[in-house]
Amino acid sequence: MGAIANRIAVENNTAKYIATDNTDVIQKFEALLSFIRKHAGLRENGELLSVLEKENLVEMPDFYDNLFFKSALDIIKCVQGNHDNLAKHFAEVHRHIQPYAIYFPQFYPIPENNVNFYEGYTDMTNLVAAKLEDPSLLTPLKNLLGFYDLVQNVEVIPRQIKIAKSFGMAGFAIYYYWFSDNSISHKHMIFQEVIDRFFDTVLENFSLFFVYCNEAWTKNVAFGTHRGGYTIANNYTEENVKANMQNLVTYFRHPNYRKIRNRPVLFLHHPHEMTGTEIRLLKTVGDSITQENGFDGIELVMDSKEGMYPYFSGYYLHANYKSAKAKEFMNTSTRPKHIDYKAYVREFLPKEKKLGDNASTINSVFTNFDNTVRFYAHEGDRQFEDVGNKAMFMTRTQGRSVTLFKEFLDVQLKKYSQKSDPISQIFLINAWNEWGEQMVMEPSNEEGFAYLEAFQERLLLTPLPDSALSNAWNQ
Q: Which single residue of 89, 191, 273, 407 could bond 472 by disulfide (Cβ 3.0 to 4.6 Å)?
């Protein structure tokens, strides 16, 4: 331990331990590693380094580099080796289960967020500041991703794809934002710069589809547009729906966009904000425009948390903390409110029969939910000028663990043994990179690759249909 102490610059961060047995040595060494992991991205004054500025990247001694990989290249090599060793196993599993991680294409400044929050706002800039006040928050793994800007840091998306693929993901389900009315930038599609980067090249064995986030930002505190008279919303006229579909079909044509039965897959995230007539219009126009472009129509899938929609497949995206049964797993008397992860997995999940027990529903899991980052307010932030106590909007998760996550996975993946329709074989992981709500699968400084490794393990150990061997490990 003394050899390690002389590598730590701040003298009061060192200590001498006299170990009485091997167990004590291991415990003390684990405590030291925990300290290094926690503080590797801090200056001596405790200020968090902004890795958005490359010149501020902390340079760690070789000893620390060897503990946590010397560079992103070393990590990628290790990840690639993992994929190469397991590729044939993933291929067998993907014949029956198609795991897609929800991808959030934000993390660069846009005019809408500049106006509604503050200049230069992203969830990542809020995370940098919030982390100083709350050390428990998860942050992107420093040597691999760091506090990234998805436009400025061009290496991030290729790394994310490689990591996701290497741990068994079939692809990303990317949030798609299109509004008929946008009084701030007057653009219909938001976050287009990031989304276009996914379609700049052809990816091998990795597909993409959109989850259409049609929820209005107008008067919505989560998007900062509850004040100021701004409008960011959808008016579902035939003209507007056609314009949206014409935009979508440019992505549908890409070889990596997921098609089932020659139909591009499109998930509708907030069908409850539309009337039945508007949903039918979206389907009719979607079928017409896709057929004009050589497809056999559109595969429209509905969020089913509010109930199934006749004639459509459905998906259920956890965590459903707004459920009428939320009292079974939530403490709403506190501020912030709290989700009990253990109660969610062991009590709520078994009782809620509509969560995908039928063969046509797409199932999902979540690792965490904590939107305190989204609602963290910088000095001068306009978001909470007129809404009072911001804590009333916050929800956090308590009691989460890798063990419980594995249980969650086992329950949900087991339902896939009887699914034969390709659309129902899609499995959603919520999410890949929702750092503003702490729903993340990509590696973090605090938890490393633990949740990815757990996902990979349970995926490969899932019993497959009788036509295959018991699980992919046996192939």
A: 89
Are 336 and 396 a contacting pair, CB within 8 Å? yes
- Nearest Cα residue to 41 out of 50, 33, 31: 50
Omega of the bond prior to 431 within 30 degrees of 0, cis?
yes
Q: In the numeric block, which tokens belong to residue 87?
A: 């590729």
Cα radius of gyration rounded to whole Å, the chain: 23
Digit-coded pLDDT (tens) for 9-33: 444 444 444 445 555 565 666 666 6
Other C-beta atoms lying within 10 Å of the C-beta of residue 335: 12
Residue 244 has which token pair? 């949206």
Q: Give SS3 for 167.
A: coil
100 within 8 A of 85, measured Cβ to Cβ: no
Which element (helix H / strand E) includes 67? helix 62-67
DSSP string, 265-300: EEEES-GGGS-HHHHHHHHHHHHHHHHHTTSS--EE
Burial of 81 (0-12, 13-18, 19+ CB in 10 A): exposed
Query: In a 10 Å sphere around its CB, with 0-12 CB exposed, 13-18 middle and 19+ buried, how is residue 74 labelled?
Result: middle
Instruction: For residues 464 and 475, give the distance between their C-alpha atoms in angstroms, rounded to a whole number.
Output: 11
Residue that has been written with the tokens 């508007």 in this structure: 278
Looking at every residue in the chain, the average pLDDT score rounds to: 82
Which residue in 362, 445, 343, 419 sits closest to 38, CA to CA?
A: 445
Under 8 Å between Cβ of 51 and 59: no
pLDDT-wise least confident of 71-80, 235-244, 380-389: 380-389
In this predicted structure, what is the pLDDT of residue 255? 98
SS3 of 320-340? CCCCCCHHHCEECCCCCEEEE
